[in-house]
Write a structure and sequence with these properties.
The complex is a heterodimer of chains A (327) and B (321). Chain A is 35% helix and 24% strand. Chain A is an alpha/beta fold. Chain A is globular. In chain A, strand 4 (63-72) and strand 5 form a beta hairpin. Chain A has helices spanning 47-55, 82-88, 100-103, 110-121, 126-139, 145-149, 158-170, 188-204, 216-222, 240-245, 250-258, 297-301, 321-326, and strands spanning 3-16, 19-32, 36-40, 63-72, 75-76, 93-96, 176-180, 208-213, 225-230, 233-239, 307-310, 313-315. In chain A, the strands form two sheets. Chain A has an eight-stranded mixed sheet with strand order 6-7-8-3-9-10-12-11, sandwiched between helices. A four-stranded antiparallel sheet of chain A has the order 2-1-4-5, covered by helices on one side. In chain B, helix 3 crosses helix 4, helix 3 runs parallel beside helix 5 (158-170) and helix 4 (128-141) packs across helix 5. The chains are: A alpha/beta (327), B alpha/beta (321).
Chain lengths: 327, 321
């Protein structure tokens, strides 16, 4: 199968007064055509920065993509000029953000914001764009499309605005949709609607989705392939069923165990002790070692590499190092 | 069954909407619209609902942080809303609140130990010299260390700050703690630590909780009885196991089926609700849920359903049950 997105050895650093923060530290990932890949992790693990790096939204001088290659349809996005990027962003790669309320321009009517990329990228006339925009509004499940076309963002609810964001994102039939916590700010019943809709849109097109979330429930519902990040590194990845049923990395195991599940009540929830390390004081160790129940001496002095342990399954942990060598 | 520590009867809280030339009241947001509930000593009552359901307003009105519009709130048999200020203040240490955002609920310029101990001084419960020892004890009970006493809030992570918030409520040795979305801002691994802390403290201190949350999976783990709110009204209350095994209200069913479960390829029946939550300033007639209810009939549009007992301590407000 063809890869839509190929990221190799990407590193994004932020330079602060106190030191360098390695927000993303040498990660590689693939998103196949038509596949949904979820990046999951806790705050500060670098999942959103991955999305921002792909879109070229890391702002200097404090932040910088220092190394790597972001291959999209065979071309390196990092080598492109601003103008070349403009023709791809919002056209072939689209993005939806967590906060629909703050991602739309409050002083422009909804319709104008949907037609803009249609006229810019697909070169539609104003009239054609309007017709297409109304179709899109209907496609994302909003009735009264004509009326909504002329409304302003403050007149709509959060769930409706997120639908509009999705309508804008899919307007140019992107090959890749990056969704950064698209349902986190929404209520559960609205979240269910939005996730259903994303699945439906994907079923009718060959779009790839890179979904970034902290919610393992959303991952289980949406993903084909899952990437688990911790402190800027990928610690484990694999196909969704395998990863949920047989998590290998102690962090993934802990995450899955500490999530309360409806109708599976336990008296005491498992919790990972301690907290995420300070990104300014990371050492040459496994970043998870001081929270890990199976920590060995090597974990404190040397960082494990992400290795293949089976077909489409990788883990970065010393516990599997021997198994990895035999593959 | 133990005695109720809090009894809420027909509580209403309307916020006026003002407008026009003279800022006259032109309508009301019915944040809490005729709610009754009782919380028994030692139990954890979970209040769930989506944004705008009024669950936080219920918590704040119980504590008389906002005045009621009508109805009664009895705390250990005394009506908090008619009590003279002096007597109310005497009761305050017995009921405490924990907030959602551990970042904005701590004063950045006050040392954590002082922030926790302040209430003890304020209520004259302890002398200045005794406070430090007591606060250090409470810090330890909340999973922090005595050296944290002299630190400032910015030196703590989100999970630790929430522990400070809990310590601050706990230091007064309260009977009732109202926790408003205390784990929503935390990461999964930290959230589990705080949920366990809530449980442990309840066992060791005999606390009663009113736990306000939008997350049903958290509520299931922590609460003994659960009330489901929608647009200012109580839709259903039941003991936890009863509610999860036998949800009766269509809204409860939809809410339960909408929670994503971290099991891939799980087959389950999902009730996807249509449309958005209506505005509480202009709620639908009859049953407030009828605009989104997949089973609504004519009677639902016309008549407000009665909140009634259906056995097993299970109450529901629905025409179809």
């Amino acid at each position: 199968m063809k890869n839509t997105l190929e990221i190799d050895h990407l590193s994004t650093y932020f330079y602060t007064d106190e030191g360098t923060v390695k927000a993303i530290d040498d990660i590689s990932l693939r998103v196949r055509e038509g596949e949904t890949v979820c990046i999951v992790g806790e705050s500060g693990c670098g999942k959103s920065m991955t999305a921002m790096s792909i879109m070229g939204l890391i702002e200097g001088p404090s932040g910088k993509v220092v190394n790597g290659r972001i291959g999209f349809e065979g071309e390196d996005l990092l080598k492109m000029s601003k103008n070349e990027l403009r023709t791809i962003r919002g056209h072939e790669i689209a993005m939806i953000f967590q906060e629909p309320m703050s991602s739309l321009n409050p002083v422009l009517p909804i319709g104008q914001q949907i037609t803009e990329p249609l006229m810019e990228h697909l070169k539609l006339s104003k009239k054609e764009a309007r017709k297409r925009a109304i179709e899109l509004i209907e496609q994302v499940g909003i009735s009264r499309a004509e009326q909504i076309f002329d409304s302003y963002p403050h007149e709509l609810s959060g769930g409706m605005l997120q639908r509009i964001m999705i309508a804008i994102a899919i307007s140019c039939n992107p090959k890749l949709l990056i969704a950064d916590e698209p349902t986190t700010a929404l209520d559960v019943t609205i979240q269910a609607q939005i996730l259903d809709m994303l699945r439906e849109i994907k079923a009718h097109s060959n779009m790839s989705i890179l979904l970034i979330t902290h919610d393992l429930g959303v991952v289980a519902e949406m993903a084909d392939y899952v990437i688990v990040m911790y402190s800027g590194k990928i610690v484990e990845e694999g196909e969704v069923v395998e990863l949920f049923n047989h998590p290998r990395h102690p962090y993934t195991q802990g995450l899955l165990k500490s999530k309360p599940i409806i109708n599976q009540r336990q008296d005491q929830l498992y919790s990972i002790p301690g907290q995420v390390p300070n990104p300014l004081s990371l050492t040459e160790s496994c970043y998870f070692h001081d929270r890990c129940g199976q920590c060995m001496s090597i974990c404190q002095s040397k960082q494990p590499q992400l290795r293949d342990i089976a077909d489409r399954q990788k883990v970065a942990c010393w516990l599997y190092e021997e198994a990895a060598i035999h593959v | 069954m133990s005695e109720p520590i809090v009894e809420v009867r027909n509580l209403k809280k309307y916020f006026p909407i003002t407008g026009g030339l003279f800022n006259r009241t032109i309508g009301h947001v019915k944040a809490v619209d005729d709610i009754s509930l009782s919380i028994r000593a030692g139990e954890t009552f979970g209040l769930v609902g989506e944004s705008g359901s009024g669950k936080s307003t219920v918590g704040r009105t119980i504590l008389r942080l906002t005045d009621k519009t009508s109805g009664e709130v009895l705390f250990k048999g005394k009506d908090l809303h008619t009590l003279p200020p002096k007597e109310l203040r005497k009761l305050r240490p017995q009921m405490q609140l924990i907030f959602q955002d551990p970042y904005s609920s701590l004063n950045p310029r006050v040392r954590v130990g002082d922030a926790i101990g302040e209430a003890l001084l304020d209520h004259g419960l302890m002398q200045k010299g005794e406070i430090r020892d007591h606060v250090e004890e409470v810090l330890a009970a909340c999973g922090l260390s005595s050296y944290h006493y002299d630190r400032f809030p910015h030196e703590f992570s989100g999970g630790q700050r929430q522990r400070i918030g809990i310590a601050r409520a706990l230091v007064l040795n309260p009977d009732l703690i109202i926790a408003d979305e205390p784990v929503s801002a935390l990461d999964v691994s930290i959230q589990a630590q705080i949920i366990n802390l809530f449980r442990g403290l309840q066992e060791s201190q005999g606390l009663t909780y009113l736990f306000i949350s939008h997350d049903l999976s958290v509520v299931e783990h922590l609460c003994t009885r659960i009330g489901v709110m929608y647009l200012g009204s109580m839709m259903e209350t039941a003991p936890r196991d009863e509610l999860f095994r036998n949800p009766l209200h269509p809204y409860t069913k939809a809410l339960l089926s909408a929670v994503p479960i971290p099991i891939p390829k799980l087959k389950r029946e999902r009730i996807v609700l249509k449309g958005d939550i209506p505005s509480p300033a202009n709620p639908p007639s009859g049953c407030k849920f009828h605009t989104r209810c997949p089973f609504a009939t004519e009677i639902c549009k016309a008549e407000v359903p009665v909140f009634r007992h259906v056995g097993h301590d299970h109450y529901v407000a629905c025409h179809l049950v």
